[in-house]
């Protein structure tokens, strides 16, 4: 690595850093500023990746690094930035050294389509089912092979991780789960019947199976973060404990504190 400065400590103690940015002008300008201050390397050689953008770009970066076990430090150059740290070009090396690590386990979706197709995908936020037509979906829900809801008539239903509980799950009036809670959120989307059902909290090891009823008349799609599967007839969801993703947060802006604060926003 070069002897570029911009933070305390010798260059020999600095990790190999790769800078990646979203396609927005703000993110690209931030990357240029950081490249002018700090030595960088290719993503494949990095010991830490600095991601510049919003939460959507962070999700993309995490998906692209599944299986590499490289920590990712995000800085917000997007809109929401719930998974990101504040952007500041100074002091990056010290911030990386002091950052706290959070390990996330994604959900694994296995979807079977009415044509007999079989698709798998990982989700860091949620796996969600949605109606494809003007008619409401009818979905049977099994938890660990036990039928818990014979028929949910709805626009959709989702399973969210603690990290994803403040995303679409929260918009669907699901509960916020503090990071580290061994739970998943099962949340209906515009439930028509049973009208009063607001969802459930499940143990993190639960296997959730959605069976699409009347799938020809009432088609349903399934989405795991960025992966969509159309015309599904059955979808299983469970946490993938063998896959671990690493995020770095400034001590004063760790993810647990953000999730806690989110619960007190009026």
UniProtKB/TrEMBL annotation:
Under which EC number(s) is this enzyme classified? 2.7.1.23
**What keywords were assigned to this record?**
ATP-binding, Cytoplasm, Kinase, NAD, NADP, Nucleotide-binding, Transferase
Classify the main location: cytoplasm
A Pfam match is NAD_kinase_C
The record, for InterPro entries, names:
ATP-NAD_kinase_N (IPR017438), ATP-NAD_kinase_PpnK-typ_C (IPR017437), NAD/diacylglycerol_kinase_sf (IPR016064), NADK (IPR002504)
Q: What catalytic activity is recorded?
A: NAD(+) + ATP = ADP + NADP(+) + H(+)
Positions of transmembrane segments: none
Where, in this chain's numbering, is NAD(+) bound?
A: 55-56, 125-126, 155, 163, 166-171
Give the protein's cofactors.
a divalent metal cation
Query: Which residues constitute the catalytic centre?
Result: 55 (proton acceptor)
Report the subcellular localization: Cytoplasm
Gene3D superfamilies xrefs? Probable inorganic polyphosphate/atp-NAD kinase, domain 1 (3.40.50.10330), Probable inorganic polyphosphate/atp-NAD kinase, domain 2 (2.60.200.30)
Give the superkingdom in one word: Bacteria
* Molecular function terms, GO-annotated: NAD+ kinase activity
SUPFAM superfamilies membership: NAD kinase/diacylglycerol kinase-like
Q: Which PANTHER family match?
A: NAD KINASE
Q: Which family does it belong to?
A: Belongs to the NAD kinase family.
Looking up NCBIfam families in the UniProt record yields:
PRK04761.1
Give a short account of what the protein does: Involved in the regulation of the intracellular balance of NAD and NADP, and is a key enzyme in the biosynthesis of NADP. Catalyzes specifically the phosphorylation on 2'-hydroxyl of the adenosine moiety of NAD to yield NADP.
Per its record, how is this protein called by name? NAD kinase
Species: Aquibaculum arenosum
Report the gene name. Answer: nadK
């Amino acid at each position: 690595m070069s002897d570029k400065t911009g933070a305390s400590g010798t260059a020999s103690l600095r990790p190999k850093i790769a800078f990646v940015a979203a396609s927005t002008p703000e993110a690209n300008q931030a990357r240029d500023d950081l490249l002018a201050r700090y030595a960088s390397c290719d993503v494949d050689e990095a010991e830490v990746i600095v991601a510049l953008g919003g939460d959507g770009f962070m999700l993309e970066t995490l998906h692209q690094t599944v299986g590499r076990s490289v920590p990712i430090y995000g800085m917000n150059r997007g809109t929401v930035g719930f998974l990101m740290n504040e952007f500041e070009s100074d002091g990056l090396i010290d911030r990386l050294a002091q950052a706290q690590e959070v390990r996330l386990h994604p959900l694994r979706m296995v979807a079977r389509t009415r044509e007999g197709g079989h698709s798998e995908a990982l989700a860091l936020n949620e796996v969600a089912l949605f109606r494809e037509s003007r008619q409401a979906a009818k979905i049977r829900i099994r938890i660990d092979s036990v039928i818990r809801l014979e028929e949910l008539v709805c626009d959709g239903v989702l399973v969210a991780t603690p990290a994803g509980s403040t995303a679409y799950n929260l918009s669907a009036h699901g509960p916020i789960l503090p990071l580290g809670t061994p739970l998943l959120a099962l949340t209906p989307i515009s439930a028509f019947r049973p009208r009063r059902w607001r969802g459930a909290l499940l143990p993190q090891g639960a296997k959730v199976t959605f069976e699409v009823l009347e799938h020809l008349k009432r088609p349903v799609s399934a989405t795991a973060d960025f992966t969509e599967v159309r015309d599904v007839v059955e979808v299983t969801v469970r946490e993938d404990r063998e896959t671990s993703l690493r995020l770095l947060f400034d001590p004063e802006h760790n993810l647990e504190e953000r999730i806690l604060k989110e619960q007190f926003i009026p």
